[in-house]
Design goal:
The chain is mainly β. It has a single domain, classed as Pectate Lyase C-like (3 Solenoid). It is built from no helices and 43 strands. The strands form 5 sheets. The protein has a 17-stranded parallel sheet that branches. A 14-stranded parallel sheet has the order 1-3-5-8-11-14-17-20-23-26-29-32-35-38, with no helix packed on it. Strand 42 and strand 43 form a beta hairpin. The radius of gyration is 24 Å and the shape is elongated. Pathway: Protein modification; protein ubiquitination. Keywords: Repeat, Ubl conjugation pathway. Pfam families: Beta_helix, NosD.
Length: 382
């Protein structure tokens, strides 16, 4: 069944699709929205606005929403309960809740514009989907939020800027791939809370109001790899209250702190370049058993600071090679480098490097990390 709107055709009410394979195009819907209960329908070139509820609700599979304008609705722009739907080239703006909320698996959401939605630009709830090449910006909350034990999502090549709380936020979710996104001027750039075994790789995170990348609140086994985190107001990359994470091969420059480890343990900080920050790498008083080597601290106001009360428990070398410090002049052999603590006793890098090369950023790893699942992912309380 094909339903094609004539020029300026307006429906004041709700369209509910109950038959499979309906094609709906060129219609303006005001007040009631579109509800899709059946499979395989195609909605194209429609305008859905000023609905009392959500603009588009999909409760089925295999549907396509293409090149529609979904704006100024009282609740969510689009809710997706079904699976394997395609949402492409739409403008989903200025809705009073989220732009899109996804509950189903296998949906492809790409090349859409989601601007100025009141809550989050997009929420992924307990599901696995492909989210790519969208512009998700200027929401009051997060640009993209992944929560409620979501796993297997790929969030890649999105432009995310000017969101009030966060560009991308991962809460109590695991094994999601967040790669190749551009984030600019968000509250936090990328943030995790109680999140496990996620890959955060090759993103550009600049000019965040707070931290560029924050791994927090008992997050474990996350890999932060090959990101550029620069010109953020606080830290380029911060690990806070978390353990067993890897921060490898990142470039952090022109932040207040390049890499900051706070109340965290057993993290690996390797092969990162920290340049022109207030402090290159800092560990606070309650951080312990962290390992740092092959990092380059270049032209920072202070290269490194380790204030841990667990003296000597953070290890600044791998047993034979440590880190490079541009303020440490080596002769034929490098003498140990004192890591300032602010107290009488300083930690040391026993084997500082006399030079540093970018090949030290090329680090092989296996993801997801085997055997690392938090209690919430097993359905237990933390």
């Amino acid at each position: 069944m094909n339903i094609i709107g004539q020029e300026s055709a307006i429906i004041d009410g709700e369209i509910r699709i109950l038959a499979d394979g309906v094609a709906l195009s060129g219609i303006n819907i005001i007040g009631g929205g579109i509800v899709i209960e059946s499979n395989g329908s195609r909605i194209e070139g429609c305008n859905v606005s000023e609905c009392a509820g959500s603009g588009v609700v999909i409760r089925s599979s295999g549907n396509s929403i293409i090149n529609c304008s979904i704006t100024r609705n009282s609740l969510v722009g689009m809710k997706i309960w079904g699976s394997n739907n395609t949402v492409q080239w739409n403008r989903i703006n200025a809705n009073d809740d989220c732009g899109i909320i996804v509950y189903g698996d296998g949906n492809v959401i790409e090349s859409n514009e989601l601007l100025e939605n009141i809550h989050d630009g997009m929420e992924i709830e307990g599901s696995s989907n492909m989210i790519s090449r969208n512009n998700v910006s200027m929401s009051h909350g997060a640009g993209i939020e992944i929560l409620n034990m979501s796993s297997g999502n790929v969030i890649e090549s999105n432009d995310i800027y000017g969101n009030g709380e966060c560009g991308i936020e991962v809460i109590e979710s695991y094994e999601n791939n967040i790669s190749g996104n551009s984030l600019n001027g968000n509250g936090f750039g990328i943030k995790t809370e109680r999140a496990t075994n996620n890959l955060i790789s090759s993103n550009t995170v600049i000019s965040s109001i707070k931290d560029g990348i924050l791994i927090s609140d008992e997050s474990r086994c996350n890999i932060v790899h090959r990101n550029n985190a620069s010109s953020n107001h606080d830290a380029g990359i911060r690990i806070e209250g978390s353990k067993d994470n890897m921060v490898i091969g990142n470039s952090v420059h022109s932040n207040a702190i390049g890499i900051d480890i706070s109340r965290s343990e057993n993290n690996t900080i390797r092969g990162n370049r920290a340049m022109m920050n207030g402090v290159g790498i800092r560990l606070d008083i309650y951080s312990t058993a962290n390992t740092l080597y092959h990092n380059a601290m270049i032209d920072n106001r202070q290269s490194a600071l380790d204030s841990s009360v667990y003296y000597g428990r953070n290890i600044w070398d791998n047993g034979s090679e440590g880190n490079y410090y541009s303020d440490h002049i080596c002769q034929e052999v490098c003498s140990p480098y004192n890591i300032q603590s602010g107290e009488e006793r300083n930690n040391i890098d026993r084997f500082p490097l006399s030079s540093w090369d970018e090949h030290l950023m090329d680090i092989k790893f296996v993801w997801p990390i085997s055997g690392c699942i938090s209690a919430y992912a097993k359905g237990l309380a933390i």
